[in-house]
Design a protein that fits this description.
There is one protein chain. By secondary structure, the protein is an alpha+beta fold. Among the domains are: 2-88, Herpes Virus-1; 191-312; 355-538, SPRY domain (Jelly Rolls). The protein has helices spanning 2-5, 36-45, 68-90, 128-132, 134-137, 188-296, 301-312, 333-352, 358-361; strands spanning 25-27, 33-35, 113-115, 120-122, 141-142, 162-164, 169-171, 185-187, 379-381, 387-390, 410-411, 420-426, 433-439, 456-463, 466-469, 472-475, 482-488, 493-498, 503-508, 517-522, 535-538. A seven-stranded antiparallel beta sheet has the order 9-10-21-12-17-18-19, with no helix packed on it. A six-stranded antiparallel beta sheet has the order 11-20-13-14-15-16, with no helix packed on it. The protein has a three-stranded antiparallel beta sheet with strand order 4-3-5, with no helix packed on it. A hairpin with a 4-residue loop joins strand 17 and strand 18 (493-498).
Length: 565
Amino acid sequence: MSAASSLLSEDQFLCSICLDVFTDPVSTPCGHNFCKNCISEHWDINVPCECPNCKKRFKRRPVLQVNTFITEMVSCFRESEQQRASSSSEQQAANPGEVPCDVCTGTKLKALKSCLVCLVSYCETHLQPHLTVSGLKRHQLINPVENLEGRMCMKHDKLLELFCKDDQRCVCMLCTISDHKQHEVVPLKDECEERKAELEETEAELQWMIQQRQLKIEEFKQSVKVSRENADREIAEGVQVLTKLRDAIKRKQAEAVKAIKSKHTLIEKQAEGFIKELEQEIIELKKKSAELQQLSLSEDHLHLLQKLPSLNAAPPTMNWTEVRVRSPSYEGIFRAASAPLLEMFKIELKKLLPKTELKTAQQFAEDVNLDPDTAHPELILSADGKKVHHGNVRKKLPDNPKRFSTALCVVGKQVISTGRFYFEVQVKGKTQWVIGVAKESINRKGPLNIDPQNGYWTLGLRRENEYYAAAYRLYSKSQPEKVGVFVDFEEGLVLFYDVDAANLIYAFTGCCFTERLLPLFCPSFNQGGKNSAPLNICPVNHPSSHYPSSLSTACSYSPVSPIGM
């Protein structure tokens, strides 16, 4: 009975009067079925009695009995519908992005499989025939996919089940005997296996790229950590140094103020003593003056003559003519108090200077050659491009835009646009010179205004023991014979070293390089032979030991700091 009921539709169990599934179904003599209550009410109203379906009239109102067979069929149908409704409710409705069942009406349930023969996607309920009917079992089922029509050949209306390697496209069986007859064609499965192998290689490469980027992330995190540690350490050291200087300044200021006030107090007390004595003498003099005035008014001649000798004499007083209260000199007190501060400042300031050692900077040595196309016409360059000196005679040379026409300068061929750069220049025997780096765009046709704001970061000797770094004047107890120039483009550093002494001469820090830099050389005039020695670019003797390749830790200082050599 249940197997039979599954083949029946809901329309077979509807009452034609209430249009709902039978309740207590009864049959009329003409063979039609109705709900017992529906047909009874119909005949109560409509007389004579006739069948609502075929209109057959009955002479007498039939006696209706419940049709037990129809009742059982209705009961089985109701159970079947409840089971189907329960099964449907357990299945999920298709969400956006999921493949819906093509058979469902109303709410589209999520498809469980797609048939490559029917080109239809089925939910669990509508998939049952493909799992039970022998003819449908032979159909090829796959996981649900959209656009099943796209799996059909547009030309032959056949399933795309082959792959043409020549045209790199999917084809059907008929395509292999027409457009792709001479082409290499393989089953889709074989091509997929080959492509999966390629995908595995690609996936392995992607995993490697991911690992490399994860390592790079860790490297960046480590850089941030090191930077934070360096920043904290530099802040601590800087605050300690400046606090020490501040306290010393306050202490020396208090001492100088105290010394000045002490001197003033002594003068003040001396003046107060003199004033007190003078005021006392004034009182005595006023008293004597009052007595004389009184005596001059007396009419007793005898009394006047008798008192006059004793009153006529002046009271004893001090001679104040040579007495002086001289203000002491306060000049030099603050200067004397500041003198030790200056030395202390120099000592403490060195603690804040970049700590890049010469041997570390030398790791970034470059082979610098002079560019003859930029040399002033009076300069003489060696054949190897390593030496330059002034020759007095102005040569006839092409005046190209790169050539210096006024300043006795020449630049190197090597461009500094990133990273770190180092070279050494021998200045032994010279009385004047300028070396360093400059922006590529500096003015080469007029006088040079050597200053960082104009694109010059240089060190130079003007006269004996008098050196200049830009506008800063430096004094040296010894003259360097070989100068090392180090540039860190990203950190904004230009450092000058006395190579033989391995000491830092001067540091430009916190620079902002906005364009490429070039090594700059100025041997200056030969001064009648006194300054005829050349500037000589020397090969760098690299240290044999291994030193860190990063200067970020040592060169993270921002203020421009002139120092004596």
